[in-house]
Amino acid sequence: MTRKTARPKVYLAGPEVFLRNAVEVGAAKVEICARHGLDGKFPLDTALKLDGLTPAEQAYAIARANEVLMDQCDAAIANLTPFRGPGMDPGTAYEIGFMRSRGKPVFGYSNHHLPLFDRVRKFSAKPLTHRPGSEPTMAFEDADRLGIEQFGLAENLMIVSAINDSGGTIVMGRTKRRDRYTDLVAFEECVRKASEMLESKR
Amino acid sequence: MTRKTARPKVYLAGPEVFLRNAVEVGAAKVEICARHGLDGKFPLDTALKLDGLTPAEQAYAIARANEVLMDQCDAAIANLTPFRGPGMDPGTAYEIGFMRSRGKPVFGYSNHHLPLFDRVRKFSAKPLTHRPGSEPTMAFEDADRLGIEQFGLAENLMIVSAINDSGGTIVMGRTKRRDRYTDLVAFEECVRKASEMLESKR
Questions:
Q1: Is B18 in the A-facing interface, judged by CB distances under 8 Å?
Q2: pLDDT tens-digit readout, A57-105
Q3: Mean pLDDT of A153-164
Q4: SS3 state at A57
Q5: Shortest CA distance to B151 belongs to which of B177, B116, B125, B103?
Q6: Which tens digits make up the pLDDT trace of A123-143?
Q7: Within 13 Å of residue B39, how many CA atoms lie on the same side as its CB?
Q8: Angle B51-B54-B60 (CA atoms, 0-180°, nearest 5)?
Q9: CA-to-CA separations, A37 to A45, A105, A170, A193, B133, in angstroms, rounded
Q10: For residues B75 and B53, what is the distance between their CA atoms, to the nearest angstrom?
C-alpha cells in the first residue's frame, strides 16, 4: 500500500525574474524540482491582476503575492549569483531573511565560482587597498573605503550563516558570463541537496 | 508622578559596519537615536569573543549575535545607500526581511537621492537598452539583459513594500560621494519619523 503525500513546496528566489524569458526559466526550474520530488514555486506564477493599478500599486501587489507564496512554502532555494556588482540581488537577500525568520530551511546556489572577497577584488574598477592595523578578516578596502569581509564565505556573513543554520547549504557553480542567469546546473545540484534534506525531515 | 518606561529599541542596520571608524559612526547613530527617545542598537556593540575562532566560525558568531540583537529590538532603521553598485547591501536587505517576517516596523534611509531605476542607469558602464514589447514597468535592460524595475521606487519592490507595509517609511538624502557612508542627515530625519511612529503605538 502506498500513501500519497504532498511534495515539499519550495520558493524559488532569484534575479532571473528580471530576464526577458523569465517565465520559461521559471518553468524549467519547476520541472527540475519535480524530477527531484519537490514542488517548486516560482514568484511569477502567481495569477496577479495588475490592470488599472499605478506602478507603485503594482509593485506592492507583486511583493504581497510573493510574501503569501513564501508563507505557503516549506523551504526556499535562492539564487546568489552576483547581480549588478559583486554581491547578490537585494530582493533575494530580503527573501532569505524572511524565510529564515519563519524558521524554514533556505538553500543557496551561485553561478559564480569565487567567494565574496575574490569577487569584490575581481569586480572592482580600482585595486583594493590595505587597511592598516586591521583584523585579518577585514584587511582590505574598496574605493569607497568600505572594508571587505574576508571570512572565505560565498556571500555576506548574514546570508551564509542563515543558510547553514537553517539546515541548508550553498552550491557554487561556474558558467560563461552570458549563461550566468540561465544556466541551471548548480541549481539542479542544489535542488538535489534540498530534496535529500527535506525528505529526511518527513 | 512620572512613570519611567523603556525607550523603544531600534536595530541599526547598514553597511557602515564596514567603515574603518564603524564604532564611532555607530556611537553617533546611537546618540542621535537617544536625542529622539529611541534606544539604538548598533550591530558592532555586541560583546563578542572571537579569539581562537576560525574566520568562518567568527562569521557565524557575528551573524548569530546580530540575529539575537534583532530579536531584542522593537524596530529597525536600515541604511539603503547603494553598496558596490546601484543596489543596497545584501546583508542589510537580509535584515529587513528578518525583521519584517517578525512583524516589526522597518524604516529605511538612503544617502543617494535617485530612485532605483535612475541609479541603475547612472551606475551602468554601458547605456541601457530597450526591451521590445515589454511592460512599461520593465522597458529597459542592463548589459546582462536583466530588466530594470521601473516602479519609481527607492529600491527593489520587496524592500520598499516591506518597509511601507510594516508601518515604516523611506527618507532619501543627498550627500557628496565621499560622505555617502558617514553623513547622518537623512538618518536623523528617519529616526525622527521612526520615533513619532513608535511613540504613537505605545
A1: yes
A2: 999 999 999 999 999 999 999 999 999 999 999 999 999 999 999 999 9
A3: 98
A4: helix
A5: B116
A6: 999 999 999 988 899 999 999
A7: 10
A8: 90
A9: 19, 16, 19, 11, 36
A10: 31
- Residue A10 · residue A38 · CB < 8 Å: yes
Which three three-digit cell numbers place residue A78? 535562492
For residue A59, give the nearest of B91, B98, B161 by CB distance.
Answer: B161
From first CA to last CA, the distance across chain A in angstroms is 18
Mutate to test the interface with B, among A53, A57, A62, A101 (most CBs of B within 10 A): A101
> Is residue A154 within 8 Å of residue A116, measured between CB atoms?
yes
CA pair distance B79, B69, nearest whole angstrom: 17
Identity of residue B107: F
Residues forming a β-bridge with A116: none
Under a CB-based contact definition with an 8 Å cutoff, are residues A152 and A87 in contact? no
Q: pLDDT for B14-47, tens place per residue? A: 999 999 999 999 999 999 999 999 999 999 866 7
- Can you read off the three cell numbers belonging to residue B155? 529600491
Whether B3 shows a pLDDT value over 70: the answer reads no
Q: Return the C-alpha cell found at B91.
A: 546583508
Mean pLDDT for chain A overall: 95
The DSSP annotation for B17-31 comes to GGSTTHHHHHHHHHH
> Amino acid identity, residue A170?
I
Q: What count of CB pairs under 8 Å joins A to B?
A: 203
Which residues of A, range 58-77, sit inside 8 Å of B by Cβ? 58-60, 62-64, 66
The model's confidence at residue A190, banded by pLDDT at 50, 70 and 90, is: very high
The residue assigned the cell 530551511 is A105
Asked if the model's pLDDT at residue B105 lies above 90, the reply is yes
Q: Which three-class secondary structure state does DSSP give residue A43?
A: helix
